[in-house]
Amino acid sequence: MYLDEDTLDWARHGSSESVSVLHKDSNGNTLENGDTVVLIKDLNVKGANFTAKRGTAVRRISLVADNPEHIQGRVNDQVIIILTKFVKK
Q1: pTM of the prediction?
Q2: Residue 47: which CATH number?
Q3: Would the N or C end of the chain have less CB density within 10 A of its end CB?
Q4: Containing domain of residue 77, as a range?
């Protein structure tokens, strides 16, 4: 396979760099998979017809790999995506 010099440079540098996405809560604490967080605001859940109340604990969260502002958690037996600015650790 032939690559011109610019593309070869890009491929070498792009593959050697690892981009790490940090998820932070509303207070700036780093979130990790499996953490428990608490909602700091009432959230209307689209498509599920309920409101996740402030103070609700969301256990065993999962981090969305490509977006540092989203986490995934289970509230009222439904898996939802939550913005990190509405949770605290």
Answers
A1: 0.74
A2: 2.30.30.40
A3: N
A4: 21-88
